[in-house]
Amino acid sequence: MKELIIWGVHFPAGSIALFAAIASFYYPKGSQKHRRAGRYFTVAMLIMLASGALGALFIPSPDDAFLAAFIIYTVFTAWLTAYHSPGQITKLEYLALAYIVLLGLVALSIDSQWDKIRDPNVYIIWPIVALMFAIGDIKHIRSHGLHEYKRLSRHIWRFSFSLIWAALAFGDKIIKILHSTIEEMLWVLLTPGIAVLLVALYWLIRINPRLSLFALNTASTSVRPKGNLP
Q: What is the tens place of the pLDDT at every residue in 89-129?
């Protein structure tokens, strides 16, 4: 059952998410094609994460289940940032904040002696990452929604954070298909994630009027009709 979920749902959905993300980076921001690619990415990622969490229950693997739960948050908030109009805050933002705080508390409560945990040291990092996201959510809520390049930066950062994990999962599955190991083909695992990181940094610099000489017209690109996905 686990293999069916992983190879029949998880891997195909992750592949679709990866290619949809490439398309969303390629197409002009705010265009119809960009929004359509973002829609495919969001749906494919949520399917991939849900199936990954379900597959982790069969192993069982608390690490994979926790990671899936965490990335669901970043995918959702990246989508929510672009879905809402500038300055719009709803109950969904509060729900996302409560969710990430809860995940941080779960990470803190993980027993390092639990034999199902492969790397207990990772759970020292997750509460810190959760705190960073929670602070971002609080600022977003207190300012009644972000505007212009700050809103785009939030969308790109969370979108890219989610995508990096999808790229790592994609590389991991390729290694398994080739019947190799991560140690032997580390470059296959890391190259997609590094590429995503570099592209994300490019866009974060480009949309920032203080850092870019050819900054985007954020006033026009940040205004999108409600109901359209990124």
A: 899 999 999 999 999 998 888 876 666 676 777 778 889 99
Angle at which helices 91-109 and 122-142 cross, to 10°: 160
Give the separation between CA 109 and CA 175, rounded to whole angstroms: 33
Classify 218 in phi/psi space as left (phi over 0), alpha (psi -120 to 50) or beta.
alpha
Structure tokens, 11: 């891997």
Identity (one letter) of the amino acid at 92?
Answer: L
Q: Does residue 30 come out as left (phi exceeding 0), alpha (psi in the -120 to 50 range) or beta? A: left
Tokens (6 digits) for 50: 């849900």
- Reported for 170-178, long-range contacts at CB under 8 A and 24+ positions apart, including other chains, are 170/14, 170/15, 170/18, 173/11, 173/14
The DSSP code sequence of 130-171 is: HHHHHHHHHHHHHTTS--HHHHHHHHHHHHHHHHHHHHHHHH
Tell me, rounded to whole angstroms, the distance of Cα 146 from its chain centroid. 19
Cα angle, residue 13 at apex, residues 12 and 19 outer, rounded to 5°: 90
CA pair distance 148, 151, nearest whole angstrom: 6
Give the number of other CB atoms < 10 A from CB of residue 213.
6
Q: Are 171 and 188 in contact (CB under 8 A)?
A: yes
Kindly report, residue by residue over 2-51, the tens digit of the pLDDT: 677 777 787 788 788 878 888 887 887 778 888 888 889 899 989 988 88
Minimal CA–CA distance to 204: which of 22, 25, 23, 76? 25
